[in-house]
Amino acid sequence: MNEGISNRQMVFILLLTMTAVTIVSLPSTMAEAAGVGAWFVLLIASVFYAAAAHIIVSLNKMFHGEVLFDYSARLIGKGGACVLGVFYLLYFTLISSYLCAGMANILVTNFFVKTPAWATILIGIPFYAYTAYKGITNIGRMFEIIGFFFIVAAVSVHIVMMFQGKVENILPLFIPEDTALYLKALPSTIISFLGIEVLTLTPIASGCRNKAPRTAFFAVLGIGLFYVLNVETSVMMIGINEVQNENNALISAIRQLQIPPLDFLERLDILYLTMGFMGLFAAKTIIVAAIVEYACKLFRRAGRVWVVIAACAAVFLIDLFLLKVNRLGKLFELFGTYAGNLAAVVIPAALFVLAKVKKHACKAG
Amino acid sequence: MRAKRVKLVLLLAAALLASGCWDSRDIEERNIATLVIVDKTEDKYSFLIEYSKPSSGKKNGESERGYIFRKSEGASLIEAREAQDRELDNPGYLGATNAVIMTERFADSGIEEYVYRLRETNDYRKMVDVLITADEPASFAEVESEQSSVGAAIEGTMESLTKSGQMYDFHLSEILESLAGPCNCFLLPNVRISNNDLEISGFSVFRDGKRIGSISAEDSKGVLLLLVKQPEMYYRVPADGSEATVQIRLDKRSVQPSYQDGTIRFTIDCRFDGVLSNMSENTTVTEETGRQIAAALQEEIAQDIFTAVQMSQQTFQSDYLDFFNTFRIAYPVEFRNMDWCSEYPNAAVTIRVSVSLDTSGVLDFSPRNNF
Predict the structure, then answer these.
(1) Are A329 and A103 in contact (CB under 8 A)?
(2) Which one of B196, B235, B250, B285 is most buried, by most CB atoms within 10 A?
(3) Chain B partners within 8 Å of A123 (Cβ)
(4) pLDDT above 70 (res B363)
(5) Roughly what angle, to the nearest 10 degrees, separates helices A22-34 and A7-19?
(6) Chain B residues with beta carbon closer than 8 angstroms to that of A277
(7) How far is B297 from chain A (nearest CA, A)?
């Protein structure tokens, strides 16, 4: 079932998973933290997380056909692998709830004011279950299709925003006296770059191994540039001060677009509703698949169907429960800062060093 | 393999269509607002809202007006709004509102709360036009406009003025931006009923969310020259014992700030293209006459800009002309550390105007006489 994914599929998986929810609130978060220098902070962060993605994919390349749970058993023993497996299982479950809360928040606040949140969660569950059952390779193919539509729609909208927005809103581009403020703003970007950890469960297809780490690196850099485009164009449309008052700044900015030839589509945010939500559903799909994959590794004797059913039922119930938690977004930001970096950077980096040391020791011995 | 892909595409297409209609309602069962007029008397707030009647048209051979006005009152904005909802046979829909008009009485007491209400109201478009009126709200309901909406007429007027370079883009979104900004000063266009017709008549000046005065249409030429992206207007200037009517169009405008020894200075540089439209008398336009017209034009335009700047600095002490933006970009740290509202009235402003006048192609009576 796990034949591996191609490099193109990996790029789209990264794009949709990383941009899923954060893209909507990123302009306000970054404007608040770094003001007009948001682009600089995002670029620095993207280099850091691009390096992290490079490390994860290098590990996948080193242990061909295996994923983190498999090669960690070889590097730190079965007990250690189980601990990591449980950690990633719980981590992805919380990520799933965060995505779900984000999705419900955007939907209920901006589009379907009267639709109960549980309905928006429930409608996707069978879809997630089916795709998770089919495995990561099929998900990769699905991401390829969705990712294409998403990127065409998103880039087109941002280009229109660039033409209709006010350039003076993003000027001056850099204030040298604020360099310390920009560096302090780096933690605010963490949540936007989480998502690279899904690469821990995506084996690379045999024909793509050599170029995979480099592709992952440039994909994350590209996503960083996409974030810059997102933040700058939203600020151009709304203004650096008002953007901080808008939790869903991207949607607000899109709502201000006016394209006379598309007069019939006066509310262009509908475009986000379709394309953006396709991306959001895709991200949730791969996170549920991650939960299923780790659960299958941990409970090897259970049949995949039963694991999928149990995982999706658990996801639905936990989503429902966490939706009631006040300020989940803020709590998750705190959680993401530590657990997210542990999952995306620290654990893969430690395993990478260990793998290199063992390889060197084997050669020497 | 191909069949699987087709299935996947169909599944995704179905997902697009299934993007939920939990609270869907037929358009016939909604009251679609096209104009909202908000007013405040001593102890009450009131809304006068124009709704479209989707099912209107010809009834028994007679044409029925497609729009109706509904009035409601309350001790607060929310009570007035609730009273409005109680009057309606179907739920209201604000997403198609063409314009929001606030009375001067209401604007004098502050528009912040209402504007923030609009921001939070999911239906409202951020690009809705917001205007101020000194007229009574009821007078808008009396404007005769057969089948068309007063709200749409206002939006149409604003749009055509903007397109012809006689008004600048300023909507709800820009008000929110100004209120959140460090300057918090802006202008909103005034609208009045004149001879049973709508007319844009100058601007209302806002500072800290409250209306602090008005600029008449006659005095707003300079404001338009500074704020409109590409202003176009007519000037009538004396030339060689006659009067010349010239159409001017902005070619380039730059505002250069400088900050030395605690003094803020701005140099406004405007370059216009002028086309001589006509002379008041049957006369030949010589090169010398052309120079005279250009000089008189430069002086008059500079005077209009000077009046606009002086009014903002001295009469209203409010930077609604957006000088702060150019200063903020050039001196971000200094700007952050100063109280712009108190510094702006003391800024020194130099105005330079040049006009490149085109007298060719205009009626020149001599050739016709000679022909």
Answers:
(1) no
(2) B285
(3) 18, 20
(4) no
(5) 60
(6) 19
(7) 30
pLDDT number for residue A180: 96
pTM exceeding the 0.90 threshold for the entire prediction:
no
- Determine the residue of chain B that is closest to A35 in CA distance: B332
Nearest CA in chain A to B96: A266
Cβ within 8 Å, pair A256-B19: no
Per CB-CB distance under 8 Å, the chain A contacts of B185 are: none
Which residue carries 């061909």 as its tokens? A64
Q: Which residues of A touch B (CB under 8 A)?
A: 36, 107, 109-110, 112-116, 119-120, 123, 127, 141-142, 145-146, 168, 171-172, 175, 177, 237-239, 241-242, 244-245, 252, 255-256, 258, 266-267, 273-274, 277-278, 281
Closest Cα of chain B to A365: distance in Å?
A: 49
Structure tokens at B219: 């005095």
Q: pLDDT tens digit string along B72-107?
A: 999 999 999 999 988 888 888 888 899 999 999 999
The confidence score (pLDDT) of residue B173 equals 92
> In the 8-state DSSP scheme, what is residue B171?
B
Residues of A whose CB is below 8 A from B181: 239, 241-242
Helix (H, G, I), strand (E, B) or coil at B72: strand
For residue A104, the surrounding DSSP H or E stretch is helix A68-106
Amino acid identity for residue A169 in this structure: N
What value does the mean pLDDT take over residues B266-275?
Answer: 96
Strand extents, DSSP E, B195-310: 197-207, 210-215, 232-239, 242-260, 263-279
DSSP-based three-state secondary structure for B215: strand
Looking at residue B270, its amino acid is C
Segment B12-15 long-range contacts (CB within 8 Å, at least 24 positions apart): B12/A145, B12/A146, B12/A278, B15/A127, B15/A278, B15/A281
Residues of chain A with confidence (pLDDT) below 70: 1-3, 110-111, 263-268, 272-273, 365
At which residue do the structure tokens 């209201």 appear?
B92
Instruction: Supply the mean pLDDT for chain B.
Output: 87
Q: What is the pLDDT of residue A108?
A: 74
> Who contacts B305 (Cβ-Cβ below 8 Å, separation ≥6)?
B222, B225, B226, B268, B270, B351, B353
Summarize pLDDT for B132-150 with one digit per residue, the tens.
999 999 999 888 665 578 9
Residue matched to tokens 């109280």? B339
Using an 8 Å Cβ cutoff, are B163 and A228 in contact? no
Q: For B12, which of A116, A145, A255 is closest by C-beta distance?
A: A145
- CA distances, A44 to each of A13, A56, A186, A347 (Å): 22, 19, 8, 21
Could you read off the pLDDT of A306-348 as tens digits, one per residue? 999 999 999 888 888 887 777 777 777 788 889 999 999 999 9
Cis peptide before B345 (omega within 30 of 0): no
Instruction: Please report the number of interchain residue pairs, chain A to chain B, with beta-carbon separation below 8 angstroms.
Output: 77
Single-letter residue type at B257: P
What are the two backbone dihedrals, phi and then psi, of residue A257, each rounded to the nearest 5 degrees? Answer: -70, 140
Is pLDDT above 90 for B287?
no
Among the partner-chain residues A114, A146, A238, the one whose CB lies closest to the CB of B173 is A238
- Rounded to the nearest angstrom, the gap between the alpha carbon of residue B274 and the centroid of all alpha carbons in its chain is 25
